[in-house]
Amino acid sequence: MAASHPTIPIHADKPGHSAFEFLSTRKDELVGWARKFSLFPYPFVTACCAMEFMAVSSTPYDTDRFGAALPRFSPRQSDLLMVVGTVTHKQAPILLKVYEQMCEPKWVMAFGACATSGGFYQNYAALPGIDRIIPVDIYVPGCPPRPETVIDAIMKLQERIANDHHPILTKDF
Ligand code: SF4
């Protein structure tokens, strides 16, 4: 007959127990860590910044390292809206509709000078920055931005996601 080993019951699921308290203080960190490596970008690409977006997505820059390699082509499956290029007033309602179709939590990146401020298209047709219609979490400077700048922005966004409070975490979870 196999020797039975004594087991130490750890009721980590019971509020008030020290193991439960320990897990409770770390759960935000754990979810933040998992979420920051699970970005699913939706590229809303309108103009020449697309060339650098393609460069960022290519093998030498390996965005797989950041868990952000797989673009989704449905906003419902994405949590990172990357607005790449010039947005005109005519396109603005479409961008807003795409944003509204994404589930929470979601983040927005303004990729390049045009998405950030309209760039040098200061005219009646171009939107002077996408933050006029949707909230922006991170701005990437450049016309177009270098891939390294985009990677830096992804890392900054990851930092923020890791430190955010995640609404799925409640007092009892
Ligand atoms: S920022 Fe420069 S490269 Fe990017 S869409 Fe505008 S003009 Fe084109």
Automatic annotation (TrEMBL):
One of its GO terms (molecular function) is NADH dehydrogenase (quinone) (non-electrogenic) activity. SUPFAM superfamilies: HydA/Nqo6-like. InterPro entries: NADH_UbQ_OxRdtase-like_20kDa, NADH_UQ_OxRdtase_20Kd_su. One of its GO terms (cellular component) is respiratory chain complex I. Binds 1 [4Fe-4S] cluster. Coiled coil: none annotated. Keywords: 4Fe-4S, Cell membrane, Iron, Iron-sulfur, Membrane, Metal-binding, NAD, Quinone, Translocase, Transport, Ubiquinone. Signal peptide: none annotated. NDH-1 is composed of 14 different subunits. Subunits NuoB, C, D, E, F, and G constitute the peripheral sector of the complex. Belongs to the complex I 20 kDa subunit family. NCBIfam families: nuoB_fam, PRK06411.1. PANTHER family: NADH DEHYDROGENASE (PTHR11995), NADH DEHYDROGENASE [UBIQUINONE] IRON-SULFUR PROTEIN 7, MITOCHONDRIAL (PTHR11995:SF14). This is NADH-quinone oxidoreductase subunit B. It comes from Usitatibacter palustris.
